[in-house]
Fold this protein.
Amino acid sequence: MIEGKALISGVGISDCGRRLGRDPWSLTAQAALAAIADAGLTPADIDGVSTYPGALASTPGMSGAGADDMRSLLGLNLRWYNGASELPGQLGAIVTAMAAIGAGLANHVLCFRTVWESSAQTQIGSRSETMRSGVQRERSQWIDPIGASHSTYGGLTMQRYMYESGTTREQIGQIAVVARTNAALNPAAVYRDPMSLDDYLASRMISDPLCLYDCDVPMDGSVAFIVSRADLVNDAKRAISIAAIGSAPGFDQSAAMMWSRTDLKPADVDMAQLYDGFSVLTLRWMEALGLCPRNEGGRFIEGGHRIARDGELPLNTNGGQLSGGRMHGFGALHEACVQMRGDAGERQVPKRPQVTAVSSGAEAFTSCLLLTL
Amino acid sequence: MSDMQRVAPPLTTRTADFWRSGADGVLRIAHCRACGLYMHPPQPLCRRCHSFDVGFDPVSGRGMVYSFTINRYQWKPGMPPPYVIADVELAEQAGLFVQTNIVGVAVEDVAIGMAVKVEFEQAGDAFIPVFRP
Ligand SMILES: [Zn+2]
């Protein structure tokens, strides 16, 4: 098992926000240098780089820097690198780094995700255009003739989930409302103004039953981690262990794989940072991970008390992607590390988490990590 | 939705026969002639038995709405909202989905489980399968 061989030794985040107008290489370097310093290392110690989605496969805004960009930006002497979009979820870049360390290819891997969609949309056009690339042309033939968009998947999966589970919009809305409440305590979050359940219910439909506040918000920013060989970590007390990896495609498959690689159980999880590109995806992850019974997600989060910052299962405590901003799973992992270290300041959950479930992606593009101290 | 000006799909070697199929009003789906599995989107070999004997064969064109969403935004100049995008599960095989539009019904009257039948709307050289209750 590679899980015991690699730890998260450092975390870093750049300035984040709407339309920063900053060079994404600058944001990436800011996050990377912060993570390297946090790990007690210097750039000379970094011998691996891993990122999603890499520079080649992507369109403006989706990728702020590639693996090789970082090599030359920081003058790294690499033994191994990876920048790819076909991975087990966005956090697949972390999984891959762990695998490289486990295989002896690298000692300290810089992992990062940089987005500047918010600025790119101003410069280039709408979200749907910035998300489209030549690589996706083969796929676009199934989307364009029927007038589908990025939100179509959100609408379809939410509709089907509500039909199968009997979940209501009032229940699903708690994902967005709790995220907004949490974002108020996060100075880096995009949306911090209070939002009530009534505000959620009254917001405009994007693709029924998917409303505006079910959709995450683009931003500019970069998040970086250092994944290090366990015996080379400088400050073991600040390192975060990855107790188990789930890298199989599919919510259920990914979750089942993760639980098969640890003795810990869903009941041991005391905090969750789960993918919320659309709010319903968080519920699907909660159920897949066994954090609530199947089809009971809506009733579990009803009223929002259980998933509040001071509830039994604090969820997306930085505001998630819905209110915090879209960092594609890397934001969730960053928040998990910060909370587990007890460094979350005003938004620190009252009982410092010992076991955290983190997930990224949806459908056949998924990964999840179980973090321990 | 006959007033829709649809974006024509690129006719690739993998999919041209699917897009042209509707010229005679018949929906054809990639079909493994060795084991009988239908596959959509099409692929050149069978996912189940790995036979390369896969071709586009006629199906009934009947199916059921598995899920749907009412699109509220104008993503394409020729497609004014609202309109319904749905996953239709074809009658031939459980789990055989076509992502499509539901036409000929008010958007608020579409429901999961609704029985629908295929028809086609032309875009360039392609015939886009859409479904009607
Ligand atoms: Zn076959």
